[in-house]
Specification:
Strand content of chain A: 25-35%
Largest sheet of chain B: 10 strands, mixed
Largest interface: A-B, 34 and 29 residues
Structural class of chain B: alpha+beta
Shape of chain B: elongated
Order of helices and strands of chain B: HHEEHEEHEHEHEEEHEEHEHHHHHH
CATH class of one domain in chain A: Alpha Beta
Low-confidence stretches of chain A: none
Strand order of the largest sheet of chain A: 6-7-8-3-9-10
Helix content of chain B: 40-55%
Number of strands of chain A: 10
Helix content of chain A: 25-40%
CATH superfamily of one domain in chain A: P-loop containing nucleotide triphosphate hydrolases
Number of domains of chain B: 2
Mean pLDDT of chain A: 91
CATH architecture of one domain in chain A: 3-Layer(aba) Sandwich
Number of strands of chain B: 12
Oligomer: heterodimer
Shape of chain A: globular
Largest sheet of chain A: 6 strands, mixed
Chain lengths: 229, 383
């Protein structure tokens, strides 16, 4: 059974009297362990697709199933709880809370679980270890480089051991070296930890690190030529 | 890290702004508590009066005296079991700011009518038997560090103005009833008389013991009627009514103080609401992130409201602590204008209610906005 199944998805935005259809019958399937890069021009709906998969937005019609859960069918409260345990979100601008340390930022999603304080801390440290930042656990975001901030963002995304990681242009704000390190890390998460990753990117080099690349154009997903593995 | 930790971290985000807001709330609360305490202290003073005592004063006003000759006739009034009198002395101890109440009394008859003034028998006799002796309350003695046997000088303001009046403290009384002040000094009326060559012959007021409190109104009416056409007409009231009359001297002070108090609270409410709104607005992307990682609308609502609550409770706590230190421990009484000024329990309760209202009024709107925040829209603004 596929981890992600999107069928006949439509999403229409209404601006004043105007209706803008982003997707019109979009289908997508991702197996457990997939590392999929999603490319496409600005405004093609890449981020919208991520938001729909994470349950942050609701489709106009169609079905979205993640790990057997009917995402649009869940109520707001259920969605929040499901998202906390099953989805890891990585943002382009890291979006760390500036008044919390790296450790505290990583610990945030665990506050929604029943883990005790020590267990939360242990898990956050483990996640920081995976991204190679244990020595920076007590640093605030302003004390970290962009690449380090994004690694903290990744640690926050994996700390609850989610089924699916959604990365919205995770290297878009980084220099080439840092971007490469982040992509190495995502590949490692995919290969060593069998994490399923859907990464939105504009960068062909970043897309090359994924096992599949899809192009989103005019509301339709196209398999990129030469995509393999 | 806990959710409370997030609240604390957010408060520390802009330390100066948080500190200024908390200080603003603290000062407003301090002012509010002060105004309320003035009110409660003044109104409480009417409640310490005994039902068994009537006060006879000059109908023209409490600053006018009555002839001592009235004492005999008052004692003969039906239903009256005892008569004594007192005269405001109004001396200054070292400097005017050390204000406290001083009454010249006839010790034996006065103390017989006031069982609330509790004195060891030997001290009581020592006070009664020495004309320059003083009886002081425990609170007053502690305030100035006075000891038995110590001689203190009061400078006259009404009697022999500018001259020293030496008194020897022979007795210290305890208040035998809650609310009865223990910060008063009593001296011998005869000492005053002596200073006037025995020709003073006036009393500020007479205090009457009555056998049946139910007859108080009838006795008072009978006394006032009998002096209606005298040179000094009387006004006879229960002790409680007499005390409340002093509150009335300030006019509608309750309305005045309540209005100022509420205006202060309303002003700080606007400041706190503005601070909370600014703080929440600045953090829209962060709130969106919290929701993205799984925080529910309710959890986000609680965090933002928690910040408003923390600021309100810290400010109110500081304001209350300040008021308790200044009034209850420090015994500041506005240089004697409000003797016995203290923060009452019901003022603290009222303050707690206002703190809650402040929390809701300042935090509810931004907390609701945070709870309802559309994550997709918010994240789009970040990108």
């Amino acid at each position: 059974m596929a981890l992600v199944e999107v069928k006949d998805l439509t999403k229409v935005f209404r601006r004043d009297t105007q209706e803008i259809a982003v997707f019109d019958g979009l289908d997508l399937t991702m197996q457990q362990g997939d590392f999929l890069a999603l490319m496409g021009p600005s405004g093609s709906g890449k981020s919208t697709l991520l938001n729909l998969l994470a349950g942050l937005d609701r489709p106009t019609s169609g079905t979205i199933t993640v790990g057997g859960h009917d995402v649009p069918g869940m109520k707001s409260r259920q969605l929040a709880s499901w998202r906390a345990g099953n989805i890891g979100f990585i943002f382009q601008l890291y979006n760390l809370i500036p008044v919390l340390t790296a450790m505290q930022n990583v610990e945030l999603p665990l506050l929604l679980t029943k883990f005790r304080s020590k267990e939360r801390r242990d898990r956050a440290l483990t996640a920081l270890k995976v991204v190679g930042l244990t020595e920076r656990a007590d640093h605030y975001p302003r004390q970290l480089s962009g690449g380090q901030e994004q690694r903290v963002g990744i640690a926050r995304a994996i700390v609850t051991d989610p089924q699916l990681i959604l990365a919205d242009e995770p290297t878009g704000d980084l220099d080439a070296k840092s971007a490469s390190e982040i992509l190495d890390l995502l590949q490692r998460l995919n290969r060593e930890f069998d994490k399923t990753i859907l990464m939105v990117t504009h960068d062909p080099n970043a897309a090359d690190r994924a096992s599949r690349t899809l192009h989103l154009e005019k509301g339709v997903l196209l398999e990129a030529a030469g995509s393999s593995i | 890290m806990t959710r409370t930790g997030i609240v604390v971290a957010n408060l520390r985000r802009r330390k100066r702004r948080t500190l200024l807001t908390i200080m603003g709330v603290a000062i407003a609360m301090f002012l509010f508590i002060t105004l309320r305490s003035v009110l409660t202290t003044l109104s409480d003073s009417g409640e310490v009066g005994s039902e068994n005592r009537l006060i006879v004063s000059n109908k023209t006003g409490f600053t006018f005296t009555l002839p001592m000759a009235y004492a005999t006739r008052l004692a003969a009034t039906a239903g009256v079991s005892g008569v004594s009198w007192s005269q405001w002395f109004g001396g200054v101890y070292i400097e005017p700011r050390n204000f406290f109440a001083q009454f010249a009394i006839d010790p034996a008859t006065y103390l017989a009518l006031y069982p609330e003034i509790v004195i060891p028998e030997d001290q009581k006799q020592a006070f009664i038997n020495e004309q320059t002796a003083a009886l002081v309350g425990r609170g007053l003695a502690e305030r100035f560090g006075w000891q038995l046997g110590q001689t203190i000088n009061l400078q006259g303001t009404i009697f022999r103005p500018g001259e020293d009046w030496p008194f020897t403290i022979r007795a210290i009384y305890e208040s035998g009833r809650g609310g009865f002040p223990d910060n008063t000094m009593y001296l011998h009326y005869a000492y005053l008389e002596q200073a006037f060559g025995g020709e003073f012959g006036e009393a500020g007021s007479f205090v009457l013991g009555i056998e049946d409190p139910a007859q108080a109104a009838a006795i008072a009416a009978a006394i006032d009627d009998s002096y209606e056409n005298s040179a000094a007409s009387t006004k006879t009231q229960t002790e409680g009514a007499y005390n409340l009359g002093f509150v009335g001297l300030y006019g509608n002070i309750g309305f005045f103080l309540n209005t100022i108090g509420m205006a202060v609270v309303f002003a700080i409410l606007l400041v706190a609401a503005n601070t909370m709104a600014m703080s929440a607005r600045e953090r829209i992307p962060e709130i969106a992130v919290l929701k993205t990682v799984g925080f529910t609308d309710r959890a986000v609502f609680a965090i933002v409201l928690g910040e408003a609550f923390a600021m309100a409770i810290l400010g109110a706590g500081l304001g209350l602590a300040g008021a308790l230190v200044v009034f209850n421990l420090g015994e500041f009484n506005f240089f004697g204008f409000i003797p016995g000024l203290a923060v009452a329990g019901r003022t603290i309760l009222l303050m707690a209610g206002i703190t809650l209202i402040l929390t809701l009024a300042s935090g509810l709107v931004p907390a609701r906005a945070a709870g309802r925040l559309n994550v997709v829209e918010a994240l789009r603004h970040v990108a």
